[in-house]
Structure formats: structure tokens, C-alpha cells
Design goal:
The complex is a heterotrimer.
Chain A lengths: L2 E10 L2 E11 L4 E5 L6 H9 L6 E6 L2 E2 L10 E4 L11 H11 L4 H14 L15 H13 L5 E5 L7 H18 L2 E6 L2 H7 L2 E6 L2 E6 L1 H6 L4 H6 L4 E8 L2 E4 L2 E4 L8 E7 L4 E4 L7 E11 L2 E8 L4 E7 H7 L9 E6 L3 E4 L11
Parallel strand pairs in A: 3-8, 3-9, 6-7, 7-8
Antiparallel strand pairs in A: 1-2, 1-4, 4-5, 9-10, 11-12, 11-14, 12-13, 14-20, 15-19, 16-17, 16-19, 17-18
Helix pairs in contact in A: 2-3, 2-4, 3-4
Chain B lengths: L2 H7 L17 H30 L3 H10 L1 H34 L5 H13 L2 H12 L6 H6 L8 H27 L1 H9 L4 H12 L1 H17 L2 H7 L9 H10 L3 H33 L11
Helix pairs in contact in B: 1-8, 2-14, 3-14, 4-8, 4-11, 5-8, 6-8, 6-12, 8-11, 8-12, 9-10, 11-14, 13-14
Chain C lengths: L1 H23 L15 H4 L2 H13 L7 E9 L3 H19 L2 E9 L1 H9 L6 E3 L3 H9 L12 H4 L2 E10 L19 E2 L7 H15 L5 H13 L1 E3 L4 H9 L6 E5 H9 L4 E4 L3 E5 L3 E3 L1 H7 L2 H9 L4 H9 L3 E2 L2 H6 L8 E3 L6 H10 L4 H5 L3
Parallel strand pairs in C: 1-2, 1-3, 5-6, 5-7, 9-12
Antiparallel strand pairs in C: 3-10, 4-7, 4-8, 4-9, 4-11
Helix pairs in contact in C: 3-4, 5-6, 8-9
């Protein structure tokens, strides 16, 4: 089933949680709603499930407009952040709950529960109570329960946030595998960009109740469309300057900026630490910098730099490249040249920043 | 309020661990605390209760049996149980409805409802009784009409039940509200997203998770319903053998210098309280066996 | 052994309780229906059995008709009316062939009057003070002139105020004047809140004015008595408990019936009869409104009339009230020694008393400042 969202809006008092959001989730895809807290991603998810009533806009699942359909009639599986397992029911009764509600026959219920216990590797735990199993197991019970009635769509709210790091990594891979096996259209909410990039076919980045950017993980990483997305996807260095006549000047560095015409506009350029190269000799498109400090963690070293104009930068270099710069070992305090391999320049003020190539 | 202890009585969510206390106090501190706790309990609770029984048996078991077999006392016991049987279910239903409305919905006048629920706790029971006299009394608002139609409310069972209901109605709601707030909305949302109707959600999810609060509230309500004196005294008419409840009977016997009989009847009230507590303990045992049994916490393995 | 006893006792109670509940569960549970028949073995008196014996001989034919009466009275008459109800049942059945069941309601006299006004359907009101009964007249439930319906101002029994002292009378209290001696601790309730306390006050007052003293002398005595009061409880019962249960004070100014009750089971107290006291006349009345409504006038009237019967007067005497029948009173002289008594008429009635003594700023406020 596809999910189409048209101009969805939701206010909580004076706070606009979701502001004119439209998106489309393809059938069988695994889509991530990514954003910082308060960006409205969970509210969108809850509105799809029917747990919040939108103030405006439509939600269409498959070819059915569900905007005015009650949550209990939507047949959408929802996995809660803290799982919301019924503590007074055993694992098997939790999983059977949606089936009993739908008045399935006893045999069918038993069969389906057994099937799900096996699918989610919960064999032997059916008779336990939720407080007698581990966090990871609880999450799988929640999944089994959400999947039991064969929902059209599966929604997961921060599915891994309640787990510790090791379990989280294992579960991610496993969930990806499960999705490939079941192919139920799934949407999950996360604030962890790594999680979104690793798991999702499609990522929708949200900010302040709006969609900031959507696309495949690769396209978003490669072509962030705004300072916000740029910033949200990982650490960046900022270089400020101005642009005129299709060219930006950032602390002496000249970069093409097709967006600028005759008048001067303030701009900021973003460079990822991985995209800064250090050289000993001056080169075209490189800035003179001095090394303040080097923090090495084995293969990769973080080099803290300062430009002539006083801006702080960080470059991430392979240890071998760093060793090549100063064979005698003394990099700290040395003068070098930093060359951005990839820089993205945005105009500072306007609401919609225009991307530019390098 | 006592409701905090309800929250504490809930089975913990995390698997239990057989860990030793991190507060490794010296043995004498623990001993001192235990002695103080038990000693205080003994002086404040156990001693008076023991005295009730001692006084009740002051003239021997034969006298005691005669006192509690007195037809007027039996009638008082029956009336007390009847009132409790009417009031407790009524307040359980009301309390659940009110607690549900207050914890799960936002509506106009919610704060007024909360205040109204607390009102009987703030109003003296005597005033509560007088309110009903003012309404149903012969000089009251609808009393004359009721008398014409031969309907008796005050100085009869309905009045006693009404006054008792008034006095005890906050108890179930007040015990439930914090527990239902603790349970959290997401369990109900989970049930709804799984296809359950509001009604089904309430019975299968909300109520079972709040059952400790409900049970506690019912026990409290029952104890108060059987023990209420002030409000009932005003509306009962105190007709011996007819509208005397056990507490009124105790007072009447005491006023007539029949101290031993008074304590004998008082011991029945105490015994009723003990029965209630035993029931509570039994329910607790059975439920905790079920829910958080000896199963050791499972190891994390994915 | 004592441990065994401690375990056995609660067990016994639980069992007894279970048995009681089981026994009574098959009976009609509604307390508004017919009253529980009281067991004759428990409350029947020798006199009652005697009447029953006679009934077999010359009883009126049993009609099968049944009547219920509600008698609303005040606290200390509980045992009296419980016994009387049985006696009257036999009497009325014998006389008319109608079975009458009397229920009794007891409480503070004032609040009982209030309850009748509020709709407690009393067939008879046997309250402590005629002033309380007068409130039924105000509410239109009772016709004026009710106090002349029955003999002797409708007072089939009376009581008076006496002094209760500790065994051996260590302070040598003989009369009202001794209460003003230095070092005597006096217990009485507050006349502002208690009806009984007003009787106490008036009795002491009369002791001065009846022996030739002036009103100023009376004020002086009462001022000194009240300066000896250790605890001023709000009600008569509270004062009794202060004196008996808490052991405070040397003398309690008390109702005679209350004092007799206190000395019945205990040798720790004795009664001192002062030279003069006051005659308290609890008056009885048939509540016209109720009996007309329920058609019970005949039975209710007989219920009160029969109180004057010598046989019942004896019952009254045994229950610590002074019988109005002179022969019966003479028979119980030991229990009720002759006393010089003044009645409320001596003070021109309750309205005058209230105004003169107990209203704000009146004599009591004058002589007593807490």
C-alpha cells in the first residue's frame, strides 16, 4: 500500500507541530522520518495511525482516504517507542490481542501466534509476561503484535531508542532483513541520521513541522538542499563570505555560486571534515591554516585548524595521510593549506536556501 | 494521599533482580529502624485493637456471644452489610467512570469535576447528612412531595445508602486517578491501533492495569462505608433494630453504659475490617503469582 | 497459653461473624420492612411473662391485625423502652387482639425532635424536655395543649438532679453549698450547650432562693461553684465520662437516673441527695400528624396511657426513673429518697429561664467567665 499525505497540518495550542506536510511513501518501501525532536515527525506518524486528528490535509492509504477513519478501523500496525506491551497479558496474549479483537477463530489465532513467534524468533517465550523478557525481546513482541493482523502499513516510533547500542545494531540489520522478507510498507521515525541512512529506502528529513528534504539516503547525503539538512546529517565546517556575479568569496577562497547576480549577498559555505585535504604547498582553491591540535583515534585523526581570519575548522584525515604531511611527527603548530574537495554554498538570509555546485 | 502507596504497590516493570541493598547500613541501624517501626505500629494500631477485644471479652465469651447475637445487633450488622453492598458497587462504577474521564479526556469543566470529587473529603460528614435532610426531609425541598407519594428516603435505607455514598464517593476515584495516570495513554493507543474499540480497550487494557488502584479504592470505600458514623447518624433516625448501623449501635450501647456490649459490637467492626484486609492479601498473592512470578529475568539475546 | 488464647479469640469472632451472616441471610434483608422480632428470653421481664400467662385465660380474640409503632425518645431511656415495648405488646394483644410491634429510636433529645420535624415518622414522642416537644407544635405536627392529654402534665415518670461523689465521700459533700468550698473539683456540663446543665444550674439556684436567700446570694454561690468547675464539657454524657472514665473531679452534678446507672455496677461512687433539687418532667405525646396519617392513634394513645399503670410504673422505677404513682414510689423509697423539689414553674417556665439565665449577657455570663 502506498501512503499519500496531502498538506497535513496540526497545531497544539499555539505550537504548530506539523505545517503543510505532503509526502508519498511507495508500496513496500521502508521510509524514515528523520528530524530533531520537535520537528513534527512523530506527530505525522501518529496522524497516519489515527492517534492524532489532523487540523487540515488528507491521508490516503492505498486508494482509501483514511483521514476520517477511526484508528481502530485503519488496520495500521504501530510499534510504540516504549513498546506499550500489556503488562498483565502474556506474550502470546499480547500477540493474539488484535486477532481476538477481530474475532478470529481460536485455531486461527493459535496458528498465527505460533507463526509470528517463530518469525520473530520468540519461540518458547509465549507464556512469559513482558516483565520477564529482555528489552530486545520486548521489541520483537511489539513488532509481532503490530504485524499479527496483517496490517496494510507498519509504523514504528523511534524503534531502537529504548535499547542499548549493541542490541540496537543487531536489531537494525535484522529489521532490514525482516522488511525484505515481508515487504509491508513501513515508516519509522528516528532522530539518528545513521539509523535512517542505514535502514531506509527513502528518507524524509523534517524540520520545524515541514519537510526539509526527501529522497534516497544517497541523494540526501550527496545533495543536501539546505544548511539545516547539511548540519543535521553530520558535523560540518562553516566558511562565511559573500557572493556576487555567480561567484562566492569565502575567506579568500573563490567558489562558483550561480545563484548570485549583480548585488552582493552574504553566503556560507559548508565543508564536511572528510572533505578537507591538507597540503604543505599552497594550491589553487586552498586556504592557509595552522594546526591547533590533533586528536588521533587509530586509523583516523581529527585535525583542529584555524584560518587566517580566525575561523575554526576540523579536518578528518587518514592517519597515513597525516603521517605523510610531517614525516618528523610535528604537525601541531605547523602551517598548512586546506583544500575543500566538496563545498556547498548557501545564501545566508533567505528562507529557501539555494544549493550550488562546487 | 494514600494513592502514592498504590503506585508503589504496582509490580515493577523491569525484571526483578535478586540484588542486595546498596544501602549497606550497619546492622544496629536496621535493628533500630525495625524496632521503632514495629514499636510504633504496636502502640498506635495493635494495642488499641487488642484492647477492643480485651474489653469485648471482659465479661467472658458467653456474654460476648449474647451481645453479638442480640437481635438488634444482628439487624445492625445486616443493615451495615446491605449498605456496603449497595454503596461499594455504586461508587466503584462512579469512581471508574470519573477517573477514566479525568485521566483520559480533556473537556470543559474538568477541573470543576475534580473539585466536586474532592468535596465530600472537605465537607464534614454531619453536613453531608444534613444536605440530604434538607432535600428529602419533611421540611425539605422534595420531602413533602415524597411523603405524599409514600416514598421514604431519609430515616430509612435509601437515605443511609445515599449519605454513605456521598461520604465515600471520592475514595475509588481518588485511588484510581494517579494509577490510571501512571499507566499512560500509550497502552490505550496501542489497543486502539490494534483494532480494539474504546469499550474493549477499557475492559482489556485500562482496567486490568489499574486494578491495584481500583482494589485499593474499593477496600477503602468499603471500610469507610461500614464505619461511617456522622453522616449516617443524621439520616438514620436511629430506630433500634431497623435503621441502626453497627457504628450507631456501638454508640448507643456505649451511651447506655453497656460498655462491654459496645466493645463486643465494635469488635465485629474490627473483624469486618480484618476480613477485608485478608481478602486484599489473598487477591495480592494470587495476582502477583500470576504476573511476576519467580521466573528469572531472561538474558539479552537476539 | 496466653498465645493460644490470642489466636483463638479472633478465630472465634470470625467464625461467630460468619455464622451470624449465614443465619440472617435468609431473612428479609430490607430494614424498612417489619422490625426484627426481639427475643423474649432476652428482654422479657417477669411482669411481662405474668401478663402473658393471664392473656391465655381471658384474652380478647386475636384479630391477626398487626400494627407497628415508632416511639422516638432520648438516649438514657433505651433499656426502659426496650423492656416496655415487650410488656406493651402483651398488654395490647390481650386487650384488643391486635399485635403491635414497637420500634424505638434514641438520640439526643433536641436532635430527636429535629428528626421528627424532618420527617422521622414518630407515633409517640417521649423526649427529655417539654421544650423539645413544643418544637413539634411549631412544625404543625402536634396540636397545642398536648401536655394536658395525659395525666400529671403528661409526665408518667420524673427525674431529678443529684450529686455523685467518689466512694466514702472524701470531701464530705452534703449539699449544694459544699460545692463552693475551696479545693472541691466540680464537674458539670456547660449550660450554654447542654440541657442537663441548665437543670443543674437551676437546682443550685433554688437551693439558695428556697431557703430565704436573695438572688444576689444565689449569684454569689453559683459564681463560686463555677469557679470550682474543672472541666466544662458540652454535654451531660461527656461530663459523666470525664468524672468516671478519666477520674477527674470530686463531685459530678448529674441526673439521678445517670447516677443510679453509674452506681449500679460499681462501688467506686456514691450518690449524695442535696436538701433541695429540681423536678425534671420528661413529657410524652402522641404525634397527631403521624397517627392520623397512619391510623395508629388508638394504639399510640394506649402506649402512653399504659405507662401510668402500676405494673409499668414498677418497670420505670427499676430503670432509674422516679415513678409518678405514689404507691409505687413509696415501694421504691430506698432508691428514691424523699427530696424537696421545685419544678420549672418555680422559674416561670423555660422561656423565662432562658431569657433570665442563659441568654447572652444574662446571669450565667455574669457569674462565669472562662
Amino acid at each position: 500500500m502506498t501512503i499519500e499525505i496531502h498538506h497535513l497540518t496540526k497545531q497544539f495550542g499555539d505550537f504548530t507541530a506539523v505545517d503543510d506536510v505532503s509526502m508519498r511513501v511507495e508500496e513496500g518501501s521502508l521510509t524514515a522520518l528523520l528530524g530533531p525532536s520537535g520537528s513534527g515527525k512523530t506527530t505525522v506518524l501518529r496522524m497516519i495511525a489515527g492517534l492524532e486528528v489532523p487540523d487540515g490535509g488528507r491521508i490516503v492509504v492505498g486508494d482509501r482516504d483514511v483521514t476520517d477513519v477511526r484508528a481502530q478501523d485503519r488496520n495500521i500496525g504501530f510499534v510504540f517507542q516504549q513498546y506499550a506491551l500489556f503488562k498483565h497479558m502474556r506474550v502470546q496474549d499480547n500477540i493474539a490481542f488484535p486477532l481476538k479483537v477481530r474475532k478470529w477463530k481460536k485455531d486461527a489465532v493459535r496458528e498465527r501466534v505460533a507463526e509470528l513467534l517463530a518469525l520473530l524468533r520468540l519461540d518458547g517465550l509465549g507464556g512469559r509476561y513482558p516483565n520477564q523478557i529482555s528489552g530486545g525481546q520486548r521489541q520483537r513482541v511489539a513488532l509481532a503484535r503490530a504485524l499479527a493482523a496483517r496490517p496494510q502499513v507498519l509504523l514504528l516510533d523511534e524503534p531502537f531508542s529504548a535499547l542499548d547500542a549493541r542490541v540496537r545494531d543487531e536489531l537494525r540489520e535484522w529489521l532490514r532483513g525482516l522488511h525484505e522478507q515481508l515487504h509491508v510498507t513501513s515508516v519509522f521515525v528516528t532522530h539518528d541520521q545513521g539509523e535512517a541512512m542505514e535502514l531506509a529506502d527513502e528518507v524524509v528529513v523534517m524540520n520545524q513541522g515541514r519537510v526539509a528534504q526527501s529522497g534516497t539516503p544517497q541523494s540526501i547525503v550527496r545533495e543536501p538542499n539546505s544548511p539545516f539538512v547539511m548540519n543535521f546529517l553530520g558535523r560540518v565546517n562553516e566558511l562565511r563570505g559573500e557572493a556576487k556575479h555567480g561567484e562566492a568569496t569565502l575567506e579568500g577562497l573563490r567558489v562558483p555560486f550561480p545563484g548570485a547576480n549583480g548585488s552582493t549577498v552574504p553566503v556560507v559555505g559548508y565543508v564536511r571534515p572528510r572533505c578537507l585535504e591538507l597540503t604543505t604547498a599552497a594550491a589553487a582553491g586552498a586556504l592557509p591554516v595552522s594546526v591547533v591540535r590533533v586528536v588521533s583515534s587509530g586509523d583516523v585523526a581529527k585535525v583542529h585548524l584555524v584560518t587566517r581570519e580566525g575561523s575554526s575548522l576540523v579536518a578528518e584525515l587518514d592517519q597515513s595521510a597525516l603521517d605523510g604531511l610531517a614525516p618528523d611527527g610535528g604537525v601541531e603548530g605547523g602551517e598548512f593549506h586546506a583544500r575543500p574537495k566538496d563545498i556547498r554554498v548557501f545564501e545566508v538570509e533567505p528562507a529557501v536556501a539555494r544549493p550550488a555546485g562546487d | 494521599m494514600a494513592s502514592h502507596s498504590v503506585g508503589a504497590a504496582l509490580p515493577s516493570e523491569e525484571p526483578r533482580q535478586a540484588s542486595t541493598s546498596v544501602f549497606a547500613e550497619p546492622a544496629w541501624v536496621r535493628l533500630l529502624l525495625i524496632v521503632v517501626g514495629v514499636g510504633f505500629l504496636g502502640v498506635v494500631v495493635i494495642l488499641p485493637v487488642a484492647l477492643v477485644f480485651e474489653q469485648a471479652f471482659a465479661l467472658g465469651a458467653g456474654f460476648y456471644l449474647d451481645a453479638i447475637r442480640d437481635p438488634d445487633t444482628v439487624s445492625a450488622l445486616r443493615l451495615t452489610l446491605t449498605v456496603a453492598a449497595i454503596v461499594v458497587p455504586l461508587n466503584a462504577i462512579f469512581g471508574v467512570a470519573a477517573a477514566w474521564a479525568i485521566t483520559k479526556f480533556d473537556f470543559r469543566g474538568k477541573s470543576i469535576l475534580i473539585t466536586l470529587i474532592d468535596l465530600p473529603l472537605a465537607v464534614s460528614p454531619v453536613v453531608a447528612g444534613l444536605i440530604y435532610v434538607l432535600i428529602f426531609g419533611a421540611q425539605g425541598y422534595i420531602g413533602p412531595w415524597m411523603r405524599e407519594h409514600d416514598i421514604r428516603v431519609i430515616f430509612a435505607l435509601p437515605g443511609i445508602a445515599l449519605a454513605t455514598t456521598f461520604v465515600t464517593f471520592p475514595l475509588v476515584a481518588r485511588s484510581l486517578i494517579p494509577v490510571m495516570q501512571d499507566v499512560g495513554r500509550e497502552y490505550e493507543e496501542a489497543a486502539v491501533s490494534l483494532g480494539a474499540s474504546g469499550w474493549r480497550t477499557f475492559w482489556s487494557v485500562t482496567l486490568p492495569q489499574a486494578k491495584w488502584g481500583l482494589l485499593y479504592g474499593i477496600i477503602l470505600c468499603n471500610a469507610r462505608a461500614m464505619g461511617e458514623f456522622g453522616a449516617v447518624a443524621v439520616v438514620s433516625g436511629k430506630i433500634t433494630g431497623k435503621t441502626d448501623t453497627l457504628p450507631l449501635r456501638v454508640e448507643k450501647l456505649d451511651k447506655a453504659f453497656d460498655t462491654t456490649s459496645a466493645f463486643a459490637v465494635a469488635s465485629m467492626l474490627v473483624a469486618l475490617a480484618v476480613v477485608t484486609l485478608v481478602l486484599k492479601v489473598i487477591v495480592e498473592w494470587r495476582t502477583s503469582d500470576h504476573e511476576s512470578g519467580p521466573g528469572s529475568p531472561a538474558r539479552e539475546h537476539v | 497459653m496466653s498465645w493460644l488464647k490470642k489466636i483463638a479469640v479472633p478465630l472465634l469472632i470470625l467464625t461467630a461473624l460468619a455464622a451470624l451472616v449465614a443465619c440472617s441471610s435468609d431473612e428479609e434483608p430490607s430494614p424498612t420492612s417489619t422490625s426484627t422480632p426481639t427475643s423474649e428470653a432476652a428482654t422479657g421481664t417477669a411482669a411481662a411473662t405474668g401478663t402473658a400467662g393471664a392473656a391465655e385465660a381471658t384474652a380478647a380474640p386475636v384479630t391477626g391485625e398487626k400494627i407497628e409503632l415508632l416511639n422516638v425518645s432520648y438516649d438514657p431511656t433505651r433499656e426502659l423502652y426496650a423492656e416496655y415495648a415487650e410488656l406493651f405488646k402483651e398488654h395490647y394483644l390481650f386487650q384488643t387482639g391486635i399485635e403491635v410491634t414497637v420500634s424505638n429510636s434514641h438520640g439526643g433529645s433536641g436532635s430527636q425532635a429535629r428528626a421528627i420535624v424532618d420527617g422521622l415518622e414518630a407515633d409517640t414522642a417521649t423526649l427529655a424536655l417539654s421544650g423539645d416537644t413544643d418544637r413539634l407544635v411549631d412544625a404543625g405536627l402536634l396540636d397545642e395543649g398536648w401536655q394536658s392529654e395525659f395525666p400529671l402534665n403528661s409526665s408518667p415518670y420524673t427525674s431529678t438532679i443529684v450529686l455523685l461523689v467518689r466512694a466514702g465521700n472524701p470531701k464530705g459533700i452534703q449539699d449544694w453549698a459544699d460545692l463552693s468550698d475551696e479545693g472541691v473539683g466540680v464537674i458539670t456540663p456547660n449550660p450554654k450547650t447542654s440541657g442537663g446543665a441548665r437543670w443543674n444550674f437551676l437546682a443550685a439556684w433554688a437551693s439558695v432562693t428556697e431557703s430565704g436567700g436573695s438572688e444576689d446570694d444565689a449569684k454569689d454561690l453559683l459564681g463560686r461553684i463555677f469557679s470550682n468547675v474543672l472541666v466544662l464539657d458540652s454535654g451531660a454524657r461527656g461530663s459523666t465520662q470525664t468524672f468516671i472514665d478519666r477520674g477527674i473531679g470530686d463531685v459530678l452534678i448529674a441526673w439521678e437516673n445517670e447516677a443510679l446507672l453509674a452506681t449500679r455496677d460499681s462501688d467506686d461512687y456514691e450518690i449524695v441527695y442535696p436538701s433541695i433539687s429540681i423536678l425534671a418532667e420528661p413529657a410524652v405525646a402522641v404525634v397527631d400528624d403521624t397517627v392520623d396519617d397512619r391510623g395508629t392513634r388508638e394504639a399510640a394513645t394506649e402506649f402512653l396511657n399504659y405507662l401510668y399503670d402500676p405494673e409499668v410504673q414498677e418497670l420505670i422505677a427499676r430503670n432509674f426513673y422516679r415513678p409518678s404513682d405514689p404507691d409505687v414510689l413509696a415501694q421504691f423509697r430506698d432508691q428514691y429518697p424523699e427530696l424537696k423539689l421545685v419544678d420549672i414553674g418555680y422559674f416561670d417556665g423555660w422561656t423565662a429561664v432562658q431569657e433570665k439565665f442563659f441568654a447572652d449577657g444574662a446571669i450565667f455570663d455574669e457569674i462565669y467567665q472562662p
